[in-house]
Design goal:
Elements (H helix, E strand, L loop, with lengths): L4 E8 L3 H13 L5 E5 L4 H7 L7 H5 L4 E6 L9 H13 L4 E7 L17 E7 L9 E4 L7 E4 L5 H17 L4 E6 L7 H13 L6 E6 H10 L6 E4 L1 H14 L7 E5 L6 E4 L16 H14 L2 H17 L12 H11 L9
Parallel strand pairs: 1-2, 1-3, 3-12, 5-10, 8-9, 8-10
Antiparallel strand pairs: 4-5, 4-11, 6-7, 11-12
Helix pairs in contact: 1-9, 1-11, 5-6, 7-8, 9-10, 10-11
Bound molecules: nicotinamide-adenine-dinucleotide, 3-isopropylmalic acid and manganese (II) ion (MN).
3-isopropylmalic acid binds next to helix 4.
Amino acid sequence: MTTVKKVAVIPGDGIGREIIPVALGVLESLQLPIEFQVFPYGGEYYLKTGITLDEDALDTLSDFDAIFLGAVGDPRVKPGILERGILLRLRFHFDMYVNLRPAKLIDERFTPLKNRETGDINLVFIRENAEGLYCGSGGFLYKNTPREVAVQEMINTYRGVERIIRYAFEYARGHGRKSVTLCDKSNVLTYAHDLWQRVFKKMGERYPEIKKKHEYVDAVAMKLVRSPEKFDVIVTPNLFGDILTDLTAELVGGLGLAASGNINPDGLSMFEPVHGSAPDIAGKGIANPLATILAGSMLLDFLGFKKEAKEIEVAVESAVRGGHVTPDMGGRLSTQQVGQWLINFLGGDDVVWF
Ligand code: NAD
Ligand code: IPM
Ligand code: MN
């Protein structure tokens, strides 16, 4: 008997509501034993109810095999309410401590870099995803006075640092990767990142076949532009990983193509594009759905549908090479037309989109 997997879907806000139905169309065309259940969380729901996540939402979601998220962020809602109240709440509550963000150049046409050295751009960011500057620990003193003090604390625990560095080395070993670069700012953050340095050094001894490298985060930003092909696996704290993965996305075709997995290797994981709700293009039908579709491929891989995950990846690569893409990548197709192209490529029929 095949067990049916249950996936919770949160389209969220802005382009999330356009790209998720298209990505679901692609996933459903494969006719896998997966049941998708859509949840309404996002700006609209918050404005109507004053609630980011229902009281029983975390309980309900814990029964699912994975979460598939579009994006959250609504210009009508104060920044942070939806981002912290939905996205970060899920990452933290379910202890999704790995943020896996690959960046692979599919076709030379899509990098903005000129006079590039030869060699593939094919790197993976392993971003710490459950602590650092994202914990929400801090506060104000003397708020709204000239004496105001605003504190935002950066949390680095031995447990948190150890498990993400271990994951990076295990990932490298499991995927035939040659090197792991620790990207930190230990020359200034002499307590917090001293811990990262010590753990990296000690952990690295267990992986003799993998080259260990270290770069300060400012130099990583520079070297990613100068010679991205020299990077393989990069492990880094939460905030640095957030910033640098928008940069690496742009090196290989843009945010419209960058997928990510929020992974708890022993629990619930959530898959989403790297980008946000893109209010500037929402409602126009031109959002690039490929990042979300690739996140869907990561989700399938995670659920054990490895063959189908690969098929989607191959289909996306063909769409990109053939220029069957949205305007952000120089194409002329709409969000839905890209989805339809992929579904036909995968052997599916025409879809009536809503
Ligand atoms: P953004 O990623 O939404 O957009 C940045 C730029 O990239 C915009 O010009 C946008 O049009 C373009 N872009 C992004 N995705 C695209 C796609 N699929 N196709 C074509 N173009 C695309 O970042 P932002 O503008 O800084 O943030 C907008 C909102 O999204 C904010 O509320 C922010 O907090 C939120 N946000 C949410 C997530 C998430 O849910 N994971 C991630 C980042 C930002
Ligand atoms: C991302 C986003 C989030 C982050 C925000 C919206 C909380 O930028 O997933 O990259 O900073 O992690
Ligand atoms: Mn980000």
